[in-house]
Please model this.
Amino acid sequence: MVCNMQIAMIEIVPFNEDITCIKTATEQDGSAIMFVYAFLVRDALFDVGCANAIDEMREFAGRNEIKHVYISHSHEDHVGCCKIFEGRTTIYANELTQRVLRDPPQYGEFFNYVWGQPEPVSELSLIPDNFSIGPLNFEVVSLPGHTMEMIGFYEPARKWFFSADAVPLPSKKKIAMPDENIPQMVATMEKIQAMDIDILFDSHRGPIESPREHIQTRIDYIKEIQRKALELHQSGKSIENIQQTLELEGPWYLELTKNRFGIDFFIKSVLFDKVVVT
Ligand SMILES: [Zn+2]
Model:
């Protein structure tokens, strides 16, 4: 199933006069395994796409003036093309994200196939709390849960919010990474629900207009699994038993992630993790 022939995909989709969506992925059987979005906002780039599409992104960057790069978090699908910009464009990231960018972990065969392995980058700048891109003024918003250091970018006058991976696909959210804090992720989504947002720019779904219902569906989905899992846990059921009773099944690739993702991590997190930042 996992072969070495990787065909990269890039799709450039203009959204409005300020924003262009840049979707990158690896192709499998003629379609994208999964797209990740970077967003060109006037002359700034929010995240940079996956490493398998580095040639395509380099070509795009050569045709467009990109003066600044802002990174949401260190996961390889979001930062794989940083190397293109090093030394010629300011790359902003917070301290914890910078640490991973300077010395990225080896993500393994499956993730190399899906996204590609990022190269280390060292010329990085600390992201400020606020920044402007022409007439647009962005606030950096902390989005802990998926990773504790993830941030999003909010433009309150336009009511745009670039939310990175803060709002997961419900179908995906039966699996987690060991360092994901699912109750914290729900608290972060509830924080987003309290913000005044017309368009949510999600890193895997793209722009979502009037996103309130979309986000609520995700919150309700996780809370329902959490409620049932807690009930079973209190009646003495094991993690494995809870998984079986709730019929939580992973996606086709779960085994291939070699324990980077697991259903058990998800169940343990909903049962035991606490909200640490509100
Ligand atoms: Zn991520």
Notes: The two ends are 42 Å apart (CA to CA).
